[in-house]
Amino acid sequence: MLLFRMGPRYLFIRSEKIDEVTNFLETNLNGEVTDYKRGVKIASEYSTLCFITDINHKKTYVEDAKKIILINDASTIVLSSIINSHACNLVHRVDMGPASVIMRIPGDGHKLIEKLKEIFDGKEVDLVDGIGLGEKDDTIISFTNEVLIGPVDELLETKLLIPQPIREVQEQLRLEGLKLITQSLDDKQWYELRINIYDSTGKYKENYDRLMFVLSKLEIGMTLGESWTKDYAVLLYSVLTYQVRLFTFFTPLEVKKILMALEYTIDGKRLVDFDLYYKNKKIHWSDVIKAKAKIHKPEEATAYRKDLYEKLKPEDIKALESMDKSLLQ
Known about the structure:
Blueprint: E1 4-6, E2 9-14, H1 18-29, E3 32-34, H2 36-42, E4 48-53, E5 67-71, H3 75-84, E6 93-96, E7 99-104, H4 110-120, E8 123-125, H5 127-133, E9 139-144, E10 159-162, H6 166-184, E11 191-198, H7 204-217, E12 222-234, E13 237-248, H8 252-263, E14 273-278, E15 281-283, H9 297-311, H10 314-328
Parallel strand pairs: 2-4, 7-9
Antiparallel strand pairs: 1-7, 2-6, 3-5, 4-5, 8-10, 9-10, 11-13, 11-14, 12-13, 14-15
């Protein structure tokens, strides 16, 4: 479960030949002209955002950029390409902006952000100001509730500008990141959950694969163990189930919604039983219903399947539905 990763690097390039620099970055480094918001949204940890400005500045800011180029390579690759291609005559000056880190946190993360601000002597900024104010030996930490594999669509409003180089920030987060996230949880604990898979048709492996596919794509938690076990669905009557033990900071009710989404197809066809236990207590589907009005489980599961689709990429939805179809054959 990835709790933090590097964000894009920011490079400020001053030039009298803005169009020529833009063309060089597009041609030689497969750069893409973009705007600031889109660039930040689709950039990965391997990307560099280049802000190209004219030369009439003592210090350059995001707002000064005449062109913004997204390059899916490290800033060192960008600089070495300019030098090795003998394109230095196009560039008046290059300034390295702050490094960036994206951290995944539960909820609004107010407690965690306050603690990090104290530890790192950080300053709350928005991203534009942080990029402009920060120097090459500073670091910006952004926060999200999303998984950290690939680009992140939504960042929380608060960012921290930290007057420390990225290597020091990374080292501290590696040592204390998990502890800080745990301390920020409302009840200061992770949850150890048991998921029992039961399929009357015997397609345990197929349903296990669907479950693990979604848990991994959403980075729900860490699997602690797996085994066959007996589940007493009816008093004195046991059925064989396959059990997965999950360690997560998501609440049992949040995990139950995901399991319900996987019990039915998007059009309401029953696929499997996923029973969830926390502290030896079964979490029932009725426990997650907000309204007290009568509602059928397939209807509720369909709503949670739609919520699940909003968290998955289009290619992941396609793969999941393909797995669903194989169960119905």
